[in-house]
Amino acid sequence: MGKYDYEHNSMFTAGDRLLDCEILDDFVADDIVQVTATVLGSLTYDTTIGGSTTVPKFQVVKIKQA
Description:
Elements: E1 11-13, E2 33-46, E3 52-65
Parallel strand pairs: 1-3
Antiparallel strand pairs: 2-3
């Protein structure tokens, strides 16, 4: 498996989108996954260099190791 470096970010949530995200419990940083998701809209957040970024936001329906 390779490491992918994308210039775009995305936000994936699951469960109640706060604490109940059991579907994501077995996944960690740098895992390569295949996701089936529903588009929720967008999320804007502040960056560490003082700007802001807007990314697509998804609700995970199904996820598995790629």
